[in-house]
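Q: Convert this sequence to structure tokens.
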Amino acid sequence: MTLILVPIMWSNGYSPPDDYYLIKESQRIGRIPRMNAAMELWCWIPTGPRPSDAKPGGVVHSLDEAEAAVEAAWERARSRTTRDHFDEVGQQVRYGFVGNRGDIRGHRHP
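A:
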């Protein structure tokens, strides 16, 4: 399944550099902001439903590692959460909702 990075756009039109939502299956599954360009540090934060014992996020050394970590957290949550609950919560973070916040031109990553 294709992952899409969508630059974050705040309500006032500001788009912070290197700060993205990660979209999969038309759902926002996480956020990935760069923490430190000199040291190439990326923070990963999964969004949506997740088990209470799930990791809240972390820091890695590349954008690819951050994407993989968010996707893995999303897959774990998906496998441990009932499909009905996952779909219900996922409705709140559909790709179309992101579009209402601003620019939705994303960078596609196979």
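The chain has three helices and six strands.
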